[in-house]
Specification:
The protein is mainly α. It has helices spanning 3-20, 27-35, 40-68, 71-105, 114-131, 137-144, 149-178, 184-188, 190-207.
Length: 210
């Protein structure tokens, strides 16, 4: 294996690792899971499926860009998607906060629409991760084209595996940690607090320059 390919693989693993450390890759699962009293199994499933959607959308765009010779265009599209996803994340956090405050006021009231809201929340969370791209992946895929299709495939697979594993592992660790917080007020306002955390996560990502 050429030194340049090895360097590309090391870069891919490093970029995937550090890229996945961003709180928007795992914190939403932690706070939403806590608020909705998810089991560990459900948290793992939701974060895993969302990770596949998160990486998969960028893989499709990257492969399309390489096949059509419009990689630069796809990089621009990814950048625009990233900014849109951050604003959607902030908006989702704000809406979830408002819903959470309403939930807190009617804490002891049995809401027949609760199951519907949980389903909508789950699908919205998944959609946000599909819309939120893995921006570094497409440039890495493009660099790999100089070494042939097998290298493109290898870079894509390695980046995807590291990203998804990081998302799942960090979500689980964070979830296990937040489960230690036992307080009546925290439990009552868990949905509102989850929304605030998600909104501020989006703001943080926006400020550091997505």
């Amino acid at each position: 294996m050429h030194d340049s390919v090895i360097a590309l693989i090391v870069a891919t693993l490093s970029v995937a690792f550090f890229h996945s450390l961003a709180p928007d890759h795992w914190l939403p699962f932690v706070v939403i899971g806590k608020a909705n009293k998810w089991s560990h199994r459900k948290l793992l499933l939701v974060s895993f499926v969302s990770g596949i959607g998160h990486v998969g959308s960028s893989v499709v765009l990257g492969a399309t860009g390489i096949a059509l010779g419009i990689v630069t265009t796809m990089v621009t599209v990814e950048s625009s998607r990233a900014r849109l996803a951050v604003f959607l994340l902030i908006g989702f956090g704000i809406v979830y906060t408002l819903v959470g405050l309403r939930h807190a006021r009617h804490h002891h009231h049995i809401d027949s629409a609760a199951l519907t809201r949980k389903t909508v929340t789950l699908w919205t969370l998944f959609a946000l991760f599909v819309l939120g791209p893995c921006e570094p992946l497409i440039p890495l895929m493009f660099l790999a084209t100089t070494h042939g299709f097998p290298t493109v495939f290898l870079v894509t697979v390695l980046f995807s595996i590291v990203t998804i594993l990081m998302m799942v592992a960090q979500s689980l660790l964070g979830f296990m940690g937040i489960q230690l917080v036992k307080h009546d007020v925290a439990e009552r306002y868990s949905h509102a607090l989850a929304g605030v955390v998600i909104a501020f996560t989006g703001i943080f990502i926006l400020l550091i320059g997505v």
